[in-house]
Amino acid sequence: MTDVLRTVRGHLGRLTLNRPKALNALTHDMVRALHAALDDWEHDDTVRTVLVDGAGDRGLCAGGDIRSIHDDARAGGTASLDFWADEYRLNARIARYPKPYVALMDGVVMGGGVGISAHGRHRVVTERSRIAMPEVGIGFIPDVGGTYLLSRAPGQLGTHLALTGAPVSAADALHCGLADHHVPSDRLADLTEALTQAPAAEAIQAHATPAPASALAADAGWIDHCYAAGTVTDILRRLRDHGGPAAEAAATLDTKSPTALAVTLRALRSAATLPDLEAVLRQEYRTSRAALRSADLVEGVRAQIIDKDRSPRWSPATLAEVDEATVAAYFTADDSDEARLEGVWSR
């Protein structure tokens, strides 16, 4: 059984992630298969629209194959670096794909799932959508262009989402610029059928409905004030002082990797100044490489995914112990990694 189902019907090339028991988590082979399909269909006049969706009824994609990355990190291997180079190249390819690329972001869409959907031209959410970049909870840093997307959300909403790892609804995703259209889940089959004949924009418009109001937009006042602070420590202070839902956000941040929080904040602020997605992906490759060699990634995956005791022992354990040199090291280029990325966007 293949992990990516590839079909052409009418004018629609459809890619279905097919690991429903793993919530369609991406493997390196799946990334290669997606690349190959996009390569083949780019110059195929039969295919006018590309659609990506997920098998099963739980969601599009829960992210990358975290267990494999954990095992690679423990062994001091480099397989994850090769995976990320191809994955980030795929993210960039999707963003500039010359044909309409439609992503059905139904159900759970996390991490790598965001990377293969939220960079597309037509991003469709439903009432079941739950979209998140939860990396700080496993000692990792948002990647797959996540810092690019979140740094460009209104105000400080992206900072809030990156540091808490909180999932957002369809309405919030639309408000934050992570999605474009709301289509009820019971109309997705009809939309897919329409895409086999009609132009993508026309088919989507015919099936889209208004989304509810965004809860995040209503909370923008305290979010913008608290997360505009210059450091995670100061953000936490403002959140606690504000109280209510802000204090709840502070309690959430207290459970995350202190190093990952500090690196993520710097990555977001830097991403906002970088010129394009490719530049941000290069920065994310550096932070991912550094995270792979950190103790927190192995410990975070152990606590959340493997042993599931939800009690990670972060090292260092507090923000006060995370010094500037540690954070800066996540952004330092490494010659071997730069060689791995050489020509990565042009292939």
Automatic annotation (TrEMBL):
<keyword id="KW-0378">Hydrolase</keyword>
<dbReference type="Pfam" id="PF16113">
    <property type="entry name" value="ECH_2"/>
</dbReference>
<dbReference type="InterPro" id="IPR029045">
    <property type="entry name" value="ClpP/crotonase-like_dom_sf"/>
</dbReference>
<dbReference type="InterPro" id="IPR045004">
    <property type="entry name" value="ECH_dom"/>
</dbReference>
<dbReference type="InterPro" id="IPR032259">
    <property type="entry name" value="HIBYL-CoA-H"/>
</dbReference>
<feature type="domain" description="Enoyl-CoA hydratase/isomerase">
    <location>
        <begin position="13"/>
        <end position="331"/>
    </location>
</feature>
<protein>
    <recommendedName>
        <fullName>3-hydroxyisobutyryl-CoA hydrolase</fullName>
        <ecNumber>3.1.2.4</ecNumber>
    </recommendedName>
</protein>
